[in-house]
Amino acid sequence: MKIRHTLAATLAAALVGAAPAAQALDIVFDYSLDSTGFFTAAKRETLNQVASIFENNLTNSLAALTDVSFSTGLMAGYAGTALSVTDRDIAANTLVIYVGAVDLSSSTIGLAYVGTAVPNRTNTSDNGFFSGWGGQMLFDTTTSSGAARNWYFDNDIRSAETVSGTLDFATVAMHEMGHVFGLLHDGTVQGDNMFPTTNGTRNLFSVNDWLDMRTEGWAVASTTPDLNQVVVVSTPVPEPSAYALMLAGLAAVGLRARRRNTR
């Protein structure tokens, strides 16, 4: 018992030491509108990695919100579930982004909407345009020809990627998240993330994109953030079906071990 207790304490201390430092800004994704299961564990991991770039590079302080109510907005005009929330509390320094995936019925591959609510956060530097509780994002599921939209994603968005015939999910996710933060399209430089079209490569936020964030009133620590701070889960998160297989495998191993002990 003493050995087990010591081992447990050691493991607990190691886990605490390995935990990432708390972020000043916390971006929370709400998947309650994902009725089709579009956001697999891999897609959620990509969103979390993109969010960690903003979390590590923005130093604004946001007040807590109590009993926030908001409804419709972006989801209302599409085949997805309409958004209606009543009396939700949002913690300080937290932004909530509702995400969904539907057939956008055009060449549009993503849409985003800045959240407005009562009560709401304000920002005097830009009349509160960027601020609020968060917002909504939609991703396209179907091409104009009716085929399933071919999204590309990997387990580490820090890697440079050139994709052909697919859409880089990390690039589009960062673009739409930029809209939630209040950015408009910037049609000046093709390589900027907020350029209105993609060019077949992975384009995360450029210096110009971060400068635009500053214009919107965000406190940007660096226009060239250290991507080594991106929080990457080294082991892919299993899908629900994988959990079932894993448990079945563990049960089989346990049964085999028991049979060996009885022999």
TrEMBL record:
Q: Which SUPFAM superfamilies match?
A: Metalloproteases ('zincins'), catalytic domain
Record domain Ice-binding protein C-terminal: where: 236-260
Q: Name one Pfam family in it.
A: PEP-CTERM
Q: Where is the Peptidase M10 metallopeptidase domain?
A: 145-199
Q: Does the keyword Cell membrane apply?
A: no
Annotated signal sequence range: 1-24
Q: Name the UniProt key words of this record, in alphabetical order.
A: Hydrolase, Metal-binding, Protease, Signal, Zinc
Q: Which InterPro entries match?
A: Ice-binding_C (IPR013424), MetalloPept_cat_dom_sf (IPR024079), Pept_M10_metallopeptidase (IPR001818)
This protein's name? PEP-CTERM sorting domain-containing protein
Q: Give the organism, scientific name.
A: Pelomonas margarita
Give the classification, highest ranks.
Answer: Bacteria, Pseudomonadati, Pseudomonadota, Betaproteobacteria, Burkholderiales
